[in-house]
């Protein structure tokens, strides 16, 4: 029996800053390259079987058809031996120097080749996030001017977005050619924009449509007329838009929703916004996304700084878990929860825009690999809840096998992930049951 997927992640962001001159490698900053065996041991000690993890794309992918798999061979062999299920994250905010950035129109097809090469080398891997947080990646790179191409225009944003989402779609297709039962967990930021005053209602409504664009394109969901005009006005062609409508792979997908206290925004009448703090919360916003796409859901990221009292992160963990149960009890098929990440992170307080070396106490463990209070609380939460949340009470079928069962599971069957909206592919699902 497959149970609820409790997960963590090892932070592997790697964008460039200073117009490509500096690479921000979180695996290096958090000392994973030297501590990877210890990190995997910590995952096991927490009682966690699912790990959001991926190879450092800028070190592995050396050119078209050229790869250095040495570090990946070591780490993935160890994950397999430990029977940890990786949710493989192939592109996390950065690309190799030779690609340039997300404005490169060659990136999607080239990335599909990289994804296929990975799947062929590690055929036992079943779960993937081909491109992490596509909306945030395009926004920070093409509109905010923070990473990679560092553009500040709608044209830059739409161009990055169409390339990033096309890369994700082509990667899914390439992986499915190797592993027909692969399942894709789209980790995406779940956002909401609140109007500060009546004059801000229009700008807020506009941004509350923009927030869906990455998943609309990825799942082949038709956008509104206003969003269609926005896309065509800023660099997308009709043919490109119809590419996304014609490649609907959602029956292979779980929708991953990331939620932080910074995900809700207060919109001013001039179109500028600032963080509002938590107003609606994860359950309300995730239900909006679930109603739009009708897919099984996984809470794929959250964290909170430990804070001056030392219990802020623990309180946030309890709040997010209560939101997960609320979503589940309201009938949304939610299949997993993630505290991100395993260890503290570095320089996320400035969104990786500056190379300050400042440690952010967000992890289940600190960078010396000492457990934090939230790590102990998460370990206890998992122990208490894991056996009372069977996946079958949430969706009819979620055909996931851990590494130790991959030989028995085989790779010949096609996985059909089932959403609450009814039959997707060949199966259907009942409503989620109430808390056990």
From TrEMBL:
Record GO terms (molecular function): hydrolase activity, hydrolyzing O-glycosyl compounds
Keyword Kinase included in the entry's annotation: no
One GO term of the biological process aspect: carbohydrate metabolic process
Keywords assigned: Plasmid
Superkingdom of source: Bacteria
Annotated Pfam families: Glyco_hydro_1
Stored PANTHER family: ALPHA-L-IDURONIDASE, BETA-XYLOSIDASE-LIKE PROTEIN-RELATED
Record protein name field: Family 1 glycosylhydrolase
Source organism per UniProt: Deinococcus sonorensis KR-87
